[in-house]
Structures are given as structure tokens and as C-alpha cells.
Amino acid sequence: GSRFADVAQAPPDPILGVSEAFRASTDPNKLNLGVGAYRDEQLKPVVLSVVKKAESKIFSRNENKEYLTIEGLDAFRKATVDLLLGAGHPAIKEGRVAVVQSLSGTGSLRVGAAFIARFMKGATVYLSNPTWGNHRNIFGDEGVEWKYYRYFDADTVGLDFKGMTEDLQAAPPGSVVVLHGCAHNPTGIDPTKEQWAAIADLCKERNLMPFFDVAYQGFATGDLDKDAYAPRLFVERGLEIMVAQSYSKNLGLYGERVGALVMVLSDKEAASRCLSQLKRLARALYSNPPTHGARIAAEVVNDKELFEEWKGEMRGMAGRIERVRGELQRSLESKYPAKDWSFITKQIGMFSFTGLTPAQVDNMTNKHAIFMTRDGRISLAGLNSAKVEYLADAIVDSVR
Ligand code: PMP
Hints:
- This protein is α/β, with parallel strands linked by helices and 400 residues long.
- Helix content is 46%, strand content 13%.
- The protein contains 15 helices and 13 strands.
- It has helices at residues 16-24, 49-61, 74-85, 90-93, 104-119, 134-141, 161-169, 193-205, 229-236, 268-285, 292-302, 304-335, 343-346, 358-368, 385-399; strands at 31-32, 97-102, 125-129, 146-150, 152-153, 158-159, 176-180, 209-214, 241-246, 259-264, 351-353, 370-371, 377-379.
- The protein has a seven-stranded mixed beta sheet with strand order 2-10-9-8-7-3-4, with helices on both faces. Strands 1-12 form a two-stranded parallel ribbon.
- Helix 9 (229-236) links the parallel strand 8 and strand 9 (241-246).
- Helix 7 (161-169) packs parallel to helix 8 (193-205), helix 8 packs across helix 9 (229-236) and helix 11 (292-302) packs across helix 12.
- The structure holds 4'-deoxy-4'-aminopyridoxal-5'-phosphate (PMP).
- 4'-deoxy-4'-aminopyridoxal-5'-phosphate (PMP) is lined by residues 36, 104-106, 132, 180, 185, 213, 215, 246, 248, 254, 259.
- Its cofactor is pyridoxal 5'-phosphate.
């Protein structure tokens, strides 16, 4: 027998497991609303036109495949911080931004978690309830203690701002607060500008460390600057922040694993020391990041023409999602007018948090072959106009 006979079977991942179940289904009507990956109106994956153009430029340069430095490609690091703070931001000029290119949003969060485990010993990480499921794994596997702060109010299908601020008020000084930069996953509910300002003040008063997860910049409103409002505001108010950035969604580079862990600090010396330690952590985790995706992102962001074209493609993606949101809401309103469906277009980003219970989700999947996570989240990126009616019928059948 194997020496590993005692190793228990791990449960399937609650999000990626949905795609596995979808692939296994033979139902001709099957619909995958599980994973948050953009699809076009034919429900096919998309490679952005700017990515293809950047790639052909890169190939024509015939670059080698040498290792990058531990911190990654410099042109990429510059592009990424420019995107986050806005080019020419004082923090960049003052050299107080530490940045390591890392393995997309997930790997960047993990480097951040490793930094917290080593240099913020004993700190508790506060996660929104609910949040993207992998946050718990990422901090938990680093041995960092985490707790929830209240976020979603099921009655109003909105933000429980009072609960959120009460919980953060009660957090011990020196705790870390994970905030979704925009397009909160899974609820699609973001704080208002006034609420962001109050959260920033609270972090300052209580000496909490904000850690922004920025996985959807450009995907919420279709505008890169608007979607960076919150982290920029915190920096403006003099807070130090950590940020995990991802190009999976906005540039459609899912499988290329492109992102960065950024720390905006109060002085240059701190940035230099923190960068040295981030490199030390990354060295042991994966040594150095991959080249190809970083070259693509750098090419697109640093080239004026490609940058403008990218913004157009991003507006196109965000616009298609917004359109099917509206269609779904109207279809549900006509099929089941007794219920208030207005939350669907109030939510923003890739997802809608439907409020379906686990039993109702099982009905969606088992009876209608609509695959989605059991928390009731659906990815609108996996929906097209042709399927709106089918989905609305299934939802009505499940909630009635
Ligand atoms: N954070 C959130 C909130 C996400 O939704 C995602 C993608 N599902 C990620 C981080 C990271 O994704 P990736 O590692 O592909 O960048």
C-alpha cells in the first residue's frame, strides 16, 4: 500500500469545480455561469485584439527566454503602477512604491500574505463576508489568522455599511483589512465615494493596514481611472497600502498569470527595504515571474495607441455585461413581477449575487443544467442574449 494511504481526498474547489461539472454534463442546453472569465456573445473565450498586436510586436523583436529578475520586468512594473495610481503620481516620483511582478492576482495576494506572516506577526486579516473563496485559502495557508467583517445585507441586497464599520472599529490596531478595489466578488456591491472616505478615515484612526485586491480594474465601469478610485483615495489621505493587481480579466490574460504586488509607503527607505524582502519571499516561492504575459501588458500600457485601443475593448466587454444584466432583469420582471429584481442592475462587475439558496442552486444545476457556485453567484460574462430567457425561466422555477 502507499505511504499516503491516510491522505484524505480534498474537496473540489467551489469555483473551479463548477467548470469541471459543466464539462462533464451532456445536456445540450448547459450553461456555465461559474467561473469569472469573459466570453463573447457566442459564449467563446476572447483574445483581445491589442494582445494579438502586442504579441506580434514582441515576436518581431525576437527576444530571448532568459530569467527575469526576481522583481520582474521593469517596463511591466512601471506600467502596472501607472495604471494603479495614474502616471506621474507623486508617490512614484518620490520612489516610495515597492512593486514585484507576480503570478496574477492570486500569486500577488500570496506574496502579500507571506509578507504579512513574516513582518506583521500576530496580525489578523479581516475579509469581507462574503468574499472570493480563495482569500481564505491564501491567508490560511500562510498561517495568517483571518476573520470576517460584515459586508452584505441580505435584506437590502446592499452593503451593510454599519456592520462593516462596527467590525473594523473593533479590529485590533495593526490588523489588515482586505478590500476589493472595485466590482466586489461575489456581491457586485461597492462602497460609495462617501463610504470609501469613511473607511479610509477609520483605517487611519484605528491604525489598520488596507490591502486592496484589484482584480477588475476597468471591468466595473469600463474606465480604468474610475475603477482605481478607492486605492488612490487612500494614498491621497496619507495611508500606506498594499495592493494585489491582476491582468486576468481586464486584458484577458487568465492563463498567462500576469499581476503584481504593490506597496505604496510613506518614504523611499521603507519602499527599498520592503522591496528587498518581497524579493526574498518571491525567491523561495517561485524564484522569478514569467516573461510572456508581462511583455504583453507592458507593450499595451506603455504604447499610446495600443493603450487607447485597449480602453475601447475594455468598454466593449464591460458594456456587453451591462447589457445582459439589463436583459436578465427585464426578463425576470416580466416573468415574476411580484418580486423586486432591481438589484441585478444595481450590482456592478462580472457577477450577480442572486440570493438563490444552495437548494435553489441545486435545482438550477440538476434540472436546468445551469452551472453556478452554491453561494448563488452567477457570472454574467458567461451569458448572452440568446440564453437570457432560458436563465430567467430557470431562476423563476427555482425561487417560486
Ligand atoms: N481576487 C478576486 C476578487 C478575484 O475575483 C480573482 C479572480 N477570480 C482574483 C483575485 C485572482 O485571479 P487571478 O489569479 O487569475 O488574477
